[in-house]
Amino acid sequence: MKVLLIEDSEALRRGIRVGLDHLGYTVDETGDGSEGLSMALTNQYDFIILDLMLPNVDGISLLKSIRKLGNQAKVIILSAKSQAEDRVNGLLSGADDYLTKPFSFDELQARLITMGRRGELNQQAKTINIADFVLDTSNKSLRVNGHFIDLTKNEFKIVEYLFNNPKQVLNPEQISEAVVGSFNHLSKNTIEAHLSSVRKKAKAVGAILPIKNKRGFGYFVDVQA
C-alpha cells in the first residue's frame, strides 16, 4: 500500500512515517500543500493522510482539487479542528475519514484498515446487473435502459453495497458501516432519504429501483423486479 502523508508538523510527520514504515506501507511525505497537490496528481496512492492547515495550499482546497480531477485515493484528514461543522465540511469536500488531533497511532492504523476494507468492497465487481439496472463500479455510474442516473457519493455507495449483496436483507447498521465506516454513522432516516432520492431519480426515467424495505429488518434487492 502506498501512502502520501501531507502534514506541516515535522515531528508529527516523522512519527507517522516511522510507524507506517514499520507496518510495511510505502510512504511519500511533504509539509507543503502545493507540493502535496502536485504529488497527489502525478503519482498513484492508495491513501492520502492530509492535514488541513498547510502552507501555500490548504487541505480542503487540495482535497477539492484532486476530487474534481477524479483522484480516487482514500483520504483521511488529520486536524485539530474538532467541531462537528469542521468534520462535516471535510467529509463533504471528499474525505473518507476525519481524525482529530491529538490521536494515537493505533487509531490511525485502525482507520486505514477500515478504509482499506471499504476499498475491497468497491472492487468486488466492475459491473453489476440487477433487472434493467447496470451499476459500474469503475466509473461510479448507474444506468437503466440507456439512461444514466446521477447519484451523490453516498447514494452510489448505498446502492453498490445492496447490489453486491442481492440475496440478503441488510440492516441500517450494516449499510452505515459499509458506506462511512465504524467511526462515522448514517442514521436509518438518512439512509432512507438517500434511497428515496435514488427512487425518484429512477422514476424520472421510467424505472423502478429494485431496492425494497423489509419493515423492521432493513433493505434488500428484489431480483425479480
From TrEMBL:
Classification via Pfam families: Response_reg (PF00072), Trans_reg_C (PF00486)
DNA-binding region, residue range(s): 125-223
SUPFAM superfamilies on file: CheY-like
Residues found modified as 4-aspartylphosphate: D51
InterPro entries: CheY-like_superfamily, OmpR/PhoB-type_DNA-bd, Sig_transdc_resp-reg_receiver, WalR-like, WH-like_DNA-bd_sf
OmpR/PhoB-type domain location: 125-223
Keywords: DNA-binding, Phosphoprotein, Transcription, Transcription regulation, Two-component regulatory system
Domain Response regulatory: 2-116
Listed PANTHER family: REGULATOR OF RPOS
Protein name: Transcriptional regulator
Source organism phylogeny: Bacteria, Pseudomonadati, Pseudomonadota, Gammaproteobacteria, Alteromonadales
